[in-house]
Amino acid sequence: MKIFNNKKDLKDCILEYKLNKKTIGFVPTMGALHQGHLSLIQKAKKKNDIVVVSIFVNPTQFDNAEDLEKYPKTLENDCKLLEPVACDVLFTPSVDEIYDDKIISEKFSFDGLEHQMEGKFRDGHFDGVGTIVKTLFEIVTPNKAYFGEKDFQQLQIIKKMVQKHQLDVKIKGCPIFREEDGLAMSSRNTRLTKEHREIAPFIYKTLKKVKKNFGTKSVIELNEWVENQFKNQPLLELEYFTIAEEKTLETAETKIDNKKYRAFIAVFAGEIRLIDNIRLKNN
Ligand code: PAF
Fold it and tell me: Where is the domain boundary, 174, 199, 216?
């Protein structure tokens, strides 16, 4: 695996691959890699000649200084995990290398997608994500880029950015990877206390029950039911639960045939904020 922390060297390396007609699959990450990331890399590996992974904890997408400071950084272990999946290139730039001395986001419009769910609770988050993903795409110039569906809103926003800015890259969404007990894999899971880790699978259990009952219960009934579930669960604090249309991410009040819906949830387990979502079927 080749490792670069400087844009110029990475660009030269990619240019050489491109001159040799190699296709590039890209998996951007913030490190603290887990099986979910590795599954994206394996997918990228199947469909591209070369796989580039980036590890960069992007400061402009954090709305909470403590979350940024405490975000797990495990580069040595990450490198060990990347070898067996045959990652070809790892890019680990510094904050200066990406932002120079201006650690600020570009302002984006994602046609309203950015105002839903996470956008309501994480000020500026999606401008930060848009800024870094666009910058990384410019450096890596991938043919395809891979993102997990755990951050489903992020995935839709990146697709929108690619479409609006006419970027020449195909965005591939990949299913959520879960622990055996159902908890969606996330780098933040390592920061859960033992008791919060034990209770955290309750989030996915709740989503599965919503999925089961979606055909027979109304959206209002399901919203109320979920809120009550969390009222009875003192270790978990519900931030939002929303059933939304997949494409627009607008909150659904009623169900309309032929539309695709997902349930989205954000929960605090102590200090750690966890998100998850599930595809719903209309009958
Ligand atoms: O999903 C993530 O890990 C990050 O938001 C991303 C896409 C790598 C941008 O920093």
Answer: 174
Residue 50 near residue 89, CB atoms below 8 Å = yes
Q: Return binding residues for ATP.
A: 30-37, 148-151, 185-188
255 in any annotated domain: yes
pTM of the model: 0.97
What pLDDT score does 281 carry?
Answer: 87
Phi, psi of 265 (to 5 degrees): -145, 145
* Domain contains 180: no
Whole-number Å distance between alpha carbons of 189 and 166: 35
- What is the average per-residue pLDDT within 100-109? 96
The annotation places the binding site at 30-37, 61, 148-151, 154, 185-188
Could you tell me which residues come within 8 angstroms of residue 112 by beta carbon, excluding any fewer than 6 positions away? 248, 250
pLDDT in tens, 65-90: 999 999 999 999 999 999 999 999 99
Give yes or no: residues 153 and 212 share one domain.
no
Residues 161 and 198 in one domain: no
Q: Which of 92, 129, 140, 171 to mutate to test the pocket of ligand 1 (most atoms within 8 A of CB)?
A: 129
Average pLDDT over residues 82-110: 97
Residue 243 CA, ligand 1 centroid: distance in Å: 23
**Ligand 1 lining (C-beta closer than 6 Å):** 28-30, 58, 61, 129, 132-133, 151, 154
State which residues form the domain around 128.
2-174
Q: What is the pLDDT of residue 283?
A: 60
Total domain count for the chain? 2
For the chain, percent of residues with pLDDT exceeding 70: 100
Q: What is the pLDDT of residues 12-57, one digit of tens each?
A: 999 999 999 999 999 999 999 999 999 999 999 999 999 999 999 9
Whether residue 158 is found in the same domain as residue 271:
no
Sequence-ordered alpha helix ranges (H) in the chain: 7-19, 35-47, 65-70, 75-82, 95-99, 118-121, 125-140, 152-164, 194-199, 202-213, 219-231
